Amino acid sequence: MMLAPKKTPPGRSAELYQRALKVMPGGCSRNTVLRKPHPLYAAHGEGCYLTDIEGITRIDFANNMASLIHGHAPPEIVDAITEQLRLGTGFTMATEAEVRFAEHMCNRAPSFDKIRFVNSGTEAVMSALKASRAFTGRAKIAKVEGAYHGLYDYAEVSQTSAPSNWGTIDSPSSVPVAYGTPASALDDVVVIPFNDADRAITILEQHTDELACVLVDLLPHRIGLIPAEPEFVSKLREWTRNNNVLFVLDEVITFRCNYGGEQASHNIAPDLTAMGKMIGGGFPVGALAGSDAVMSVLDPLAETVLFPHSGTFSANPITMTAGRIAMELYDQSAIDRLNALGEQARAAIADAIRAADVPACVTGTASMFRIHMKPNPPSNYREAYDKAGEDALRREFLDYALDNGILLVGTCTGMLSTAMTGKEIGRLADVVEAAFRKIRPAFERQSLA
Ligand SMILES: Cc1ncc(COP(=O)(O)O)c(C=O)c1O
Predict the structure, then answer these.
(1) Among 39, 46, 138, 279, which residue is least crowded by beta carbons within 10 Å?
(2) Ligand 1 centroid distance, CA of 144 (Å)
(3) Is 131 in contact with 181 (CB distance < 8 Å)?
(4) Per residue in 356-412, pLDDT tens?
(5) Reading across the β-sheet that carries 114-118, which strands appear in turn?
(6) Is the CB of 252 under 6 A from ligand 1?
(7) Is pLDDT above 90 for 19?
(8) Which of 29-38, 113-122, 199-208, 402-411 is predicted with the least confidence, judged by mean pLDDT?
(9) Ligand 1 within 6 A of 74 CB?
């Protein structure tokens, strides 16, 4: 298989983008795929390789934003889905596929007594927040500054706050992402700093009786892919339990870290967990799982249904089949092998940074890494926030990587798939070192500026 030999030629992709611009805002349906001068357009993928319509093949470290845990078109999933496609793709009836997948998932984590499937991580987080409100009868939610949890009004508050509007660290402001976000939504979100348990609890205590839940991602990608410190997690868990506030984990990305998700690594049982991405085996998915008591708010058989919940495509048999097979294949030995490969990737990147002698660093856990254009890993959102020049360095780095056969997420993040081996990690390390050597003068200009 030939890897990208030279710069991407401005061929069919440029033409397609001109057509796309006429029919979609910005020429796309998801901002994630945009890049200048135009997006790359995928033709086909196989395992950990992705070929664009110009015929250029790259190693795929983006894996559709961490959703393809087994890479592209794994044969076991393709076969099962093909069979299901012939039987039908969705019915106004329940399916056995849903029951089998629910049974598998409930066996993976002790905190999963019951589960419900939806179609995206956004919907899973939204459902977790609504379930928390229904259970507690309270409106407010607390979330970590800078953490990404999808597009629900409340969940996205302060996801992009900036020095000009983020307020003091002792009282972070609730900053909207979308123009027109109702002020009432902002008022109902309490923003806490990451990995600062005492400060977070002091803030929470000002709202105890109004809070439905505290929402946390244990490895927030937008805060630099740095792990939550055990003390931060255990203190928040204890505080929520003592104050009858629910503890909700967003494991949309982190469920890959361990057989029972990153909650297993921390040995904690949240009240609710939102999931998505890789549990769909490549298809649109979200899930909400939790204790019998809390999940009972969704029970349509109850005398009073506290949280009526439905969705046309929820638990469709294509996603349920693909998801179950993906998760069955992702057993403990697959997880151990992938996490070891992640460790190898982070070590190789750190070596490459040292060899190229640039002020960069690498973070991550399990099967994920993120490369930063700064010498030290950030420890919270305010430190992770881009300093002047970092974005330009990142773009130069990403362009070099793309031109040399490596596809990363736009934040310089990589999410491994089980289709990868040491060979792909070796290639990654070579390209990272060469990219840093190439852009080293740009780092030097930054430090002189
Ligand atoms: C941690 C986290 N939560 C929620 C979401 C939203 O998931 P989706 O894009 O499927 O709506 C994402 C997506 O990137 C995410 O990373």
Answers:
(1) 46
(2) 15
(3) no
(4) 999 999 999 999 999 999 999 999 999 999 888 899 999 999 999 999 999 999 999
(5) 114-118, 286-290, 272-276, 246-250, 211-216, 140-144, 189-192
(6) yes
(7) yes
(8) 29-38
(9) no
Name the residue at shortest CA distance from atom 8 of ligand 1: 121
Q: Give the containing element (helix H, strand E) for 99.
A: helix 96-106
368 lines ligand 1 (CB under 6 A): no
253 lines ligand 1 (CB under 6 A): yes
Mutate to test the pocket of ligand 1, among 252, 370, 409, 413 (most ligand atoms within 8 A of CB): 252
Decide: 125 in ligand 1 pocket, CB within 6 A. yes
Transcribe 176-207 into DSSP letters.
Answer: -SSTT--HHHHHTEEEE-TT-HHHHHHHHHTS
Residue 336 tokens read as: 């151990």
> Which pTM was predicted?
0.96
Q: Is ligand 1 within 6 A of the CB of residue 120? A: yes
Q: Write out the H or E segment, with its range, that includes residue 424.
A: helix 422-448
Ligand 1 center to residue 90 CA distance, Å? Answer: 24
Angle, helices 317-329/75-87, rounded to nearest 10 degrees: 160
DSSP code of residue 234: H
Q: Which residues contact 158 (CB under 8 A, 6 or more apart)?
A: 143, 145, 146, 166, 172, 173, 174, 175, 189, 191
Q: How far away, in angstroms, is 437 Cα from ligand 1 center?
A: 33
Structure tokens at 46: 């196989």
Peptide bond before residue 25 is cis, with ω within 30 degrees of 0: no
What span, in angstroms and rounded, lies between the C-alpha atoms of 429 and 431?
5
Cβ proximity of 278 and 67 under 8 Å: yes
Spatial CA neighbour of 287 closest among 143, 157, 416, 122: 122
449 vs 285: CA distance, rounded Å:
46
What proportions of the chain, in percent to the nearest 5, are helix, strand and coil?
Answer: 45, 15, 40
pLDDT digits (tens, 9 = 90+) for 429-441: 999 999 999 999 9
Joined tokens for residue 220: 């927030």
Contacts of 389 (CB under 8 A, 6+ apart): 373, 446, 449
**CA dihedral sign, ordered 352, 358, 364, 369:** negative
